Amino acid sequence: MEKISVVICTHSTSRLPLVRDALASVQIQTRPAHEIIVVVDHNQTVADALASDDTNVRVIPNTGPQGLSSARNCGVAAATGDIIAFIDDDARAAPDWLEKLLEIYRTRDVLAVGGYIEPVWPGGRPSWWPEEFDWVVGCSYRGQPETAASVRNLIGCNMSFRRMAFDVCGGFSETLGRVGADGGGCEETELCIRAQSAFPLSRILYDPAVRVRHRIDPERVSWRYFVKRCRAEGRSKALLAARLGGGQGLKTETRYVRRVLPAGVLKGLAGGWDGFLRAGAIIAGFAITATAYALPRRTRSKAEAEAPPFAPIKVAQFDLAEPIGELASDDPGNGRIYGGAFCLVREHDRPLGIAKFATHGRPVEAREFSVLLQQARAGDEAAVRPAKVLSQPPTARVVVATRDRPGMLVRCLDSLLVQAYRQFEIHVVDSAPASSATRELIAQRYAGTNICYRHEANPGLGLAHNRGIAGARAEILAFTDDDVLVDRNWLAVIGNAFARDARIGCVTGLILPAELETRAQWWTEAHGGFNKGFTPRLFDLEFNRPKGSLFPYAPGAFGSGANMAFSRAALDAIGGFDPALGAGTLARGGDDLAAFTATILAGFQLAYEPGAIVWHHHRRTEEGIAGQAYGYGVGLGAYLTKTLFDHPSSALAYALGLPAALVHILGPGSSKNARLPSDYPSALKWAERRGMVAGFAAYFRSRRAVARRAGRERQPPLMSQRSA
């Protein structure tokens, strides 16, 4: 059973009776605390008085700057429990407070828990005071969930966190929060947002059954204090928004302002004179808070602009056909502690789904882990075809385009060399290299293997792919990138698909993350551009058409270029890849999408086979994915432009599908945007959207550049021009 440390902060001699009542309520819990720590904020008289009490309580001073945040941080540093719970010095916990907390923490993905804070008014609630503004006195308010639910943040009077939240994120911000009797706040909100961002597979839970009673000081039951606290909250929210770089921290407030407050005003106006006063208090409270929020806006400091912490997520795969053991939550090789796990669940060669869950640095026992893996089964398992060994497998050529990344290339090639497939060759295309490192790598490390080196002097992924397939006699032409690891059965699954039906001209597969060590990599994975699911799908112009007027011009469900293969006949029919598209060109991408659409328009089928798996190394830095987001947008815009240019009849489909496409791209509730993490930067969304607009002109500039280059030098032959 996990142990709970309880931390109570106090600062004033006048509050000694209150803090003693709070301590008494914690000491009579049905599930005793592991320890109780009182942190005294720069008041030796209070510290001496509490230390002289005959109680089993640790009394420690706040050794940092004066203020509630600093005092709480001292309590965290002194605590030895697995869970750290906080209660205010003027609150009393229900007898089962800790028991209910421990029960909730038995759920693995819970990172933090808070509960209901009941106000105890001196002489009763003022008739003019709206329940929507009980947060002014640090209590639960109308608009919070009425049953257990995930929330953005907790209220400090009744909150708790797993120890690992502090280990990874640090403590409460000492530039936010209350100092003495001022009305500052938001330090709990800022920590919760930081913790949720660091542990994206975890939940912050509010459960009204976890209860404390908060005694309201008589001096706070006044209009003057109401105004003071609203003003302080506005200033604190402005500081919070500055720290988070925009409106990330205000999504809950936006919903509160749009839904809860208007409903409260309408209810008040219909409730007589007292209701009219409550409606007026709501309007005034909002106006005061909003004005205070707007006035002191500032930019982030250098320290605040630094990337927040992130608990890495362990990537693994497990076979349900084999015994399931314990999942370690650390890596003995580098000492890294993982906050979550991302596990591919398979049964022999069949991928069944992904199990994603929080670990919080704790190993997952075999019994619990087996249940989690079983729950990850997804899609129609019977339709996921195992990779069989064909008696006469089609011959294959694998093309890997690379540019000055020999370290990554080694990992990719080593994974290709152990394929459970016969009769294939690997062609590495060195695209406009700045050095001879790749050539030397192939000559030295891979001498005597089935790897062939090819040099392409000009940049562009489409051009590199054409160089890689020139002269090919193989029946299957497969493509992957230099930053992937290829599953051992990758080619076998692809070969089976092509052997199954001669109409299949293209096969794509599942792309999973090779690592999730950084927030940027998690954002990339959550964006959803790679994983197309675990159900095989077939696309063609006849009976396998998805709904929507944009098919086949919206190839989002088809797959990606890091995992694709074509029949030689299909690439012959479409003339290879457009050299004006792809990474390294002015168009930045779109070569794969254009080839997918062209294959279907040429009368072939495209098969998505989740059993064909590659593991992609997403970019590690936020700076890297910022450029990548824009590049994705440019590539998509360029692809759409090419399709419209090559097939003018697609204009009608574009026009009919435009409203739905705009909703998909811009709508906050669309499948594209709803799956993004709460901390996914809006700047990345807009970078991708700007890229889409820029893609139109980029494609024509890229075409002109290719045409000018073709006038100066002889281009490599396309598939249709391959040598005998």
Give an overview of the whole structure.
With 724 residues, the protein is an alpha/beta fold. It is built from 22 helices and 23 strands. Strands 1, 2, 3, 4, 5, 6, 7, 8 and 9 form a nine-stranded mixed β-sheet that branches. Strand 15 (396-402), helix 12 and strand 16 (424-431) form a beta-alpha-beta unit. Helix 7 (223-244) packs parallel to helix 9. The longest helix is centred in the last third of the chain and has 31 residues, at 682-712. Mean pLDDT is 90; it is low at 379-383 and 719-724.
In short:
With about 725 residues, the protein is α/β, with parallel strands linked by helices.
Topology record:
Blueprint: E1 4-10, H1 16-27, E2 35-40, H2 44-52, E3 58-61, H3 68-78, E4 83-87, E5 91-93, H4 97-105, E6 110-120, E7 149-150, E8 158-162, H5 163-169, H6 187-198, E9 203-215, H7 223-244, H8 251-269, H9 272-294, H10 302-305, E10 313-319, E11 330-331, E12 336-337, E13 340-347, E14 350-358, H11 366-375, E15 396-402, H12 406-416, E16 424-431, H13 437-445, E17 451-456, H14 461-469, E18 476-481, E19 484-486, H15 490-500, E20 504-513, H16 519-527, E21 537-539, E22 563-567, H17 568-574, H18 591-601, E23 605-616, H19 622-646, H20 650-666, H21 671-674, H22 682-712
Parallel strand pairs: 1-2, 1-4, 2-3, 6-9, 10-13, 15-16, 15-18, 16-17, 20-23
Antiparallel strand pairs: 4-8, 5-9, 6-8, 7-9, 11-12, 13-14, 18-22, 19-23, 20-22, 21-23
Which structural traits does this protein have?
single chain, 724 residues, alpha/beta, nine-stranded mixed sheet, 23 strands
